[in-house]
Amino acid sequence: MSIVLFVGLLYYIIPFGTGINSFLHRKVRRAPHENYKGGLLLNILLVAPETKKHRKKPLFVPFPQASLTLLAALTPPGHTVQIVDERIREIDYDGPYDLVGITAMTATAFGAYAVADEFRKRGKKVVLGGIHPTAIPDEALRHADSVVIGEAEGLWEKVIEDTERGTLQPFYRREDLPSLDGLPHSRLDLLGRGYLLKNVFQTTRGCPHGCGFCSVSVFNGRKYRHRPVEDVVAEVRENRSRFVGFLDDNIVGNPHYAKELFRALIPLRKKWVSQGTVKMAQDEDLIDLAQKSGCISLFVGFESVNEKNLNEMHKSFNPVEKYRQLIGNFHRHRIMIVGSFVFGFDDDDPSVFPDTMKFIEETKIDFGMFNILTPLPGTEVFEKFKNENRIFSYDWSHYDFTHVVYHPAKMTAEELQRGNNEMYRKFYTMPNILKRTLRNWRYTGYYFPSSLYYNWVSRHPHSIDEK
After folding, report:
1. Neighbouring-strand partners of residue 126
2. Of the candidates 113, 127, 259, 387, which lies 20 to 30 Å from 364 by C-alpha distance?
3. How far apart are CA 48 and CA 318, in angstroms?
């Protein structure tokens, strides 16, 4: 699980009209590069698709699709680049675009394909990329002129060059993972309003753990790669916001690097959120530096309070017997915990829900993220469930961690769906929210609005579609 899942569920927040669309519909033309070779100047549209169409756009979404602001930065000077987040604004399918780039996770794959099909009807060149097209590139190519497989650095520039020449290839892939040294600063200036956390950065990629349900190591590799600390600090320093986020899957995966980064962040006096591991609290120097550098909240993937489940998913590095002690250490350092839990492992029966709620209440976890085990394409769980004929839905829009798409081992699909819905309902009652807000009074402006959203989520439960 990642921090993306935590704020990712802030997707359907308060509806509103489209009054800010004119502000968001900005086009930024950079000055031509001095070494530009005279090729076509392209009008490029980068799209973050929504999962499903909605009658009204939301007021806010959690944060921007970080890959698109980086793609915009990687685009050679001279081209026009525009970013459209379909979650908060409509797409102009009749715009004068020469190239349309669309990123897709599994939950947004059908939405991405629909956008791609509409542009291709109009004769536009479309490129698909992201985790889902990387996992199933042949499926993605049915809706695109080209598919970028894996991370885009070094490939996106080639896509643009080939588009200029009229020689766009069906697939672009690289044999190795790109270095993170010298990455350009993400084009956050191309984003408009509408994000709860707009100013997001990345310090690392990759994860060595290879958890059976997670696609991170499949897409980003099983080795930590780091941006130079000085590059990260320079990018954060030039950003005027006092509140930023690091979209790393584990910002403390390399403790030595993390300590160096935190020391360098201290003079900037920023407040920040990210994702770490519960074991971080075993290193007193590390957690102390995190607090001093401005950390106020960490997303922590506990996943399960059942040791057998963690062993099955190759996450035995989570010390269940030490959870209470380590959570207490986070709180002593005034760091709120966003606890992520996954239901539906093969050793889970209906008792997993009251057992988990009891644990959360005893340890005073600040936010609860409750997820249904989802067999994402490319993962070990997907292959296992597919081979066992347990997957009953391949509607990718339901692969959002809130819908059951397979038959669990020790409970029915209906029990799993209902149990997950109930966890949200019980945890995010107004009395519980007020009690936890008083406990986290230092961060009321951050904690209370987010909790109100989850109260709204709890009152809009999901159901199963077994068509």
Report:
1. 100
2. 259
3. 33
Tokens 């008792």 correspond to: 351
**Rounded to an integer, what distance in angstroms lies between the CA atom of residue 417 and that of residue 419?**
6
Token representation of residue 282: 């075993």
Query: Could you report the per-residue pLDDT of 144-196, keeping only the tens digit for each?
Result: 999 999 999 999 999 999 999 999 999 999 888 889 999 999 999 999 888 88
Give burial (CB, 10 Å; 0-12/13-18/19+) of 122.
exposed
- If you write DSSP's letter for every residue of 326-358 in order, what string do you get? HHHHHHHTT-EEEEEEEE--TT--TTHHHHHHH
With tokens 């099909």, the residue in question is 117
Q: What is the pLDDT of residues 17-47, one digit of tens each?
A: 333 233 233 333 333 333 344 567 999 999 9
Across 359-451, where does the E strand assignment appear? 367-372
Query: 424-431: long-range contacts at Cβ-Cβ below 8 A with a sequence spacing of 24 or more?
Result: 424/368, 424/370, 424/454, 424/457, 424/458, 424/461, 425/458, 425/459, 425/461, 426/357, 427/357, 427/360, 427/368, 427/370, 427/454, 427/458, 428/368, 428/454, 428/455, 428/457, 428/458, 429/455, 429/458, 430/455
Question: Could you give the CA distance from residue 262 to residue 47 in angstroms, rounded to a whole number?
Answer: 33
Q: List, in order, residues 6 or more apart from 264 with CB less than 8 Å away.
A: 229, 230, 232, 233
Q: Strand, helix or coil at 297?
A: strand
- pLDDT at res. 117: 98
Model confidence, pTM: 0.86
3-state SS of the chain: helix, strand, coil percent to 5?
40, 15, 45
State residue 433 phi and psi, 5-degree precision: -65, -45
How far apart (Å, rounded) are the C-alpha atoms in residues 58 and 120? 27
Q: According to the model, what pLDDT value does residue 33 have? A: 36
Packing angle of the helix pair 323-332, 284-292 (nearest 10 deg): 30
Residue ranges and CATH numbers for the domains of the chain are: 3-173 (3.40.50.2300), 199-458 (3.80.30.20)
Per-residue pLDDT reduced to its tens digit, 92-105: 999 999 999 999 99
* Per-residue model confidence (pLDDT) at position 190: 94
- The torsion angles phi and psi of 104, rounded to 5 degrees, stand at -145, 130
Start-to-end Cα distance in the chain: 27
